[in-house]
Design brief:
Blueprint: E1 13-17, H1 43-55, E2 60-64, H2 74-82, E3 88-93, H3 98-108, E4 112-116, H4 122-129, H5 134-147, E5 152-158, H6 167-177, E6 180-185, H7 192-199, H8 206-215, E7 218-222, E8 228-233, E9 236-241, H9 247-251, E10 255-258, E11 263-265, E12 275-276, H10 278-282, H11 287-299, E13 305-307, E14 310-312
Parallel strand pairs: 1-2, 1-10, 2-3, 3-4, 4-5, 5-6, 6-9
Antiparallel strand pairs: 7-8, 8-9, 10-11, 11-12, 13-14
């Protein structure tokens, strides 16, 4: 039975950030401070969290980071979660290590993957990530398809003057490799100075969506994903992901998050209402006590959105 919050939003999925270590340094990425490897949650602790989540009705688990594949125990983590028989287990990764792990992850129970991959140009890739791993990421995408992960999605953050001219080249790459392209609008932050910096790279998706509407043979709205649209074009698919600081996203949000430190994060856009889970686990709390912590976090959920560096609750 699904658990709902005070606004009758069902809690369907749980995103667990298993590390905030990463092997690339994308300039648009937001870090709250790196948690040392020795302080990360263990596979057994992650399993315990997933088990309680399953007990309250969570159906889907997504592992993220940082870069989740920098953890040498990633296959063990996926295997433990898969033993709980969730409807879906997925990972978000930059793809640079995916070629090494794809087959093992499928065997462990991983169902699908999202690969953050913004450009096909080596110089642009180096500008964005400060690394030269582009070919590793390309190979990782292909290996994921070969291993049987389905769907495989490429997350392309579109940036004005950086990679906006590559959208159709990326679509062709995705179509040729049997993967779905997700075009992501650059997320503005609460920090006004950083917001002004990122504004220089902000790409308006409206004209693009108008073009996609004209050339698509079918358009589908995803209800529980802020009504984002998926465009079907010939033998390919493009999904447009708008910034999450809006009322439509909040109205349809069905997700809880776990931080790398083991805290429940009821809202993506807030850090002032976290609920500590890892210390009670390490102190021997019972499943019922942990379940109550989850319910407490769910009770803290309320719609939220950002408006020109100010917050509003709807």
């Amino acid at each position: 039975m699904k658990t709902t919050d005070r606004y009758q939003r069902p809690i369907i999925s749980l995103r667990i950030s298993i590390t905030n270590r990463c092997n690339v340094r994308c300039f648009y990425c937001h870090h709250d401070g790196i948690v040392a490897e020795s302080y990360e949650m263990s596979p057994d602790e992650i399993f315990r969290i997933a088990k309680i989540a399953k007990d309250i009705g969570v159906e889907k688990i997504r592992l993220s980071g940082g870069e989740p594949l920098v953890r040498k125990d990633i296959v063990e983590i996926v295997s433990k979660i898969a033993s709980l028989d969730f409807k879906d287990i997925s990972i978000t990764t930059n793809g640079t290590l995916l070629g090494r792990y794809a087959a093992e992850l499928v065997d462990a129970g991983l169902k699908r993957v999202n690969v953050s991959f913004d450009t096909l140009n080596p110089k642009t890739y180096r500008f964005i990530t400060k690394r030269d791993y582009m070919e590793n990421a390309r190979e990782g995408i292909k290996k994921a398809v070969e291993a049987g992960l389905d769907p495989v999605k490429v997350n392309m953050v579109v940036m004005k003057g950086v990679n906006d001219h590559e959208i159709w080249d990326m679509f062709q790459f995705c179509r040729e490799n049997g993967v779905i392209l997700q075009l992501i609008e650059l997320l503005k932050t609460e920090n006004c100075e950083e917001g002004e910096f990122l504004e220089d790279y902000h790409y308006d998706m409206n004209p693009l969506e108008e073009e996609l509407s004209k050339i698509s043979h079918r358009v589908k709205k995803r209800r529980f994903m802020q009504d984002r649209k998926k465009y079907f074009i010939e033998d390919g698919e493009i999904e447009v992901v708008r910034p999450m600081d809006n009322t439509e996203f909040c109205k349809n949000c069905t997700r809880l998050r776990i931080t790398p430190e083991g805290k429940i994060k009821p809202c993506l856009l807030r850090n002032d209402n976290l609920v500590d889970l890892i210390e009670p686990i390490r102190s021997g709390s019972s499943d019922e006590e942990l379940k109550n912590l989850f319910l407490n976090a769910i009770n803290k959920r309320e719609p939220y959105y950002t408006e020109t560096c100010a917050t509003k609750s709807s």
